[in-house]
Prior knowledge:
Layout (H helix, E strand, L loop, with lengths): L1 H20 L6 H24 L18 H32 L7 H26 L6 H16 L7 H15 L6 H29 L1
Helix pairs in contact: 2-3, 2-7, 4-5, 5-6, 5-7, 6-7
Amino acid sequence: xxxxxxxxxxxxxxxxxxxxxxxxxxxxxxxxxxxxxxxxxxxxxxxxxxxxxxxxxxxxxxxxxxxxxxxxxxxxxxxxxxxxxxxxxxxxxxxxxxxxxxxxxxxxxxxxxxxxxxxxxxxxxxxxxxxxxxxxxxxxxxxxxxxxxxxxxxxxxxxxxxxxxxxxxxxxxxxxxxxxxxxxxxxxxxxxxxxxxxxxxxxxxxxxxxxxxx
Length: 214
């Protein structure tokens, strides 16, 4: 009996330390929804490109700023912003709901460190993508987004679930592969931001949230 109590005390201490050093209120379902939004965004982007007679043919020179008029670029940028807003909004809602349900704080020193470590490489990647757009290197924007997003996940995983690091590495590798298939970035984008998120979200939900609910 004393050994069991001792082990239980150790488990409680370990749980308290994890809660104090890691943000564990991230919702797996948020990842699923983010993936769905990304795939929908890729489908709409494909429709927009087709309506504007822009096709993916793997030719780097054919997919450059000279062939991407300002109206088309504006539509794609607005679509990307809409997907981002939906994903972030859903993540905030589900994560806040999960935190309240588990009687956890949504905004503390740990969540601040998570956001700083996550958004620092992400912001650098966003600026780099704008530079690519400025110089008309359109074909490398999708691979760069995947690579920098993956680095952001890896960097931020220190302050939340370690499983997030696997998703980060997967996106980095996918982004590097995408650099060798210029003109097909939209498909890699759909896999990285869409399919990978859905798989990760289901995995996290089954591993952590369903277990807690039971």
